[in-house]
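As a warm-up, study this chain.
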Amino acid sequence: MPSSSFGSPLAAIAAREIAEFRRKHPTATQVDILIADACGVFRGKKIPVAKLEGLYRDGVGFPGSLYATDITGETVDATGLGFDDGDADRICLPILNTLDGVPWADRPSGQIMVAMRDFDGSPFFADPRRVLAGVVERLSADGLTPVVAIELEFYLIDRDRDPAGRPRPPLSPLHGRRQNTVQVYGIGELYDFDTLLNEVYDACREQEIPVDSVVSEYAPGQYEINLHHVRDPLEACEDALLFKRAVKNVAVKHGIDATFMAKPYPDRAGSGFHIHLSLLDRDGRNVFAGDDPMGSAALRHAIGGLSATMADGMALFAQNQNAFRRFQPNSYAPHAPSWGVNNRTVSLRIPAGQPADRRVEHRVAGADANPYLVMAAVLAGAHHGLTHTLDPGPPTTGNAYRKVDPTLTSSWIVALDLLDQSGVFEDYLGRPFLDVYLALKRAEREKFFATITPLEYDWYLNRV
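Now compare it with the structure written out below.
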């Protein structure tokens, strides 16, 4: 396999990154190599710090079948990336600016993200990061720079499940009790796990993950931490993936689990993944800005595209059976491609704020979704709307759950079929990628539904 060496000036950048890492972490002995699969799960290996120069110069091998790995960790050969190509390795090179320390590790360690290259050195077609990069390039060709911020909700849960094996809120170190009521924006609930949340902040700051505010969300043990706006969607997604890793590992250090599962409790709020999006023109002006609270015509065209492509993108926004359980009435998870101003019951919200800061908040995806794929779908939808000057129709005021008929599918198989038939997403994401992703998720769905649940035995075994 040919070498994938960084050439100058990348070699100089690599040398500076390694030198800075060694200066900040002089006792580190090992580095975690991280690569996010199609489900957004990190996979990888450890290397000695002494091998960092070789990693930047020559890369590291991972099989292309990594992107055919389902949520259980098994390879789906129907993707064509397993035995069909000999389970061949590709070279993976470091993603610049992701080399950093691991604050929660028991021994001084580092971590770095890598991206896969194909045999000819081009980005690997099945890598979701490559898919997002292609969409960003199309916006850039039209002189548009996305400015994005990500919000992620998650639950803290007890490592010991309840007597039925279900999750439950953890005991607060502050007073030894479990949260049992909905206290949205509750300050006291933040202090229940103050030490843990502060350590998450410290870990993110050390890793230069741009964390912002933290709030207690709409269920016991649920929190949301926002990330700052950045001008690079790829960087925003890397920050989101590393943020999730930090939250989970800091929680474990405190004897608690953290989960980004979309719907861990049937009767409580789901956990969402919201994207705030604005677009800058070549002169750095926000094309969505306007004195009208509904923003500019460009903003409404972008919303028109997001609305038109939302149903087709559901298999990207909800990547497993549990994720579809979020979409319930009055749950803050939208059920139709609705939009409005300062309205959290719609799927596409224009937040209140200054005219220069107009943006749209996309509220559909679950917190367990792959950030690269959600971002790619959102940017593709917005660009599609701008390109075709799509009209989103009138905004929704008041309760969208009552005023707008539910049209987004709650069926995983229907969502996969809609994505398969989508001309827009075939155009933006590429047919080869879609074929791999659809084969992967259809096989994962078949495996899921091949399992007979305890509820089925309880309901049917002795009654029918």
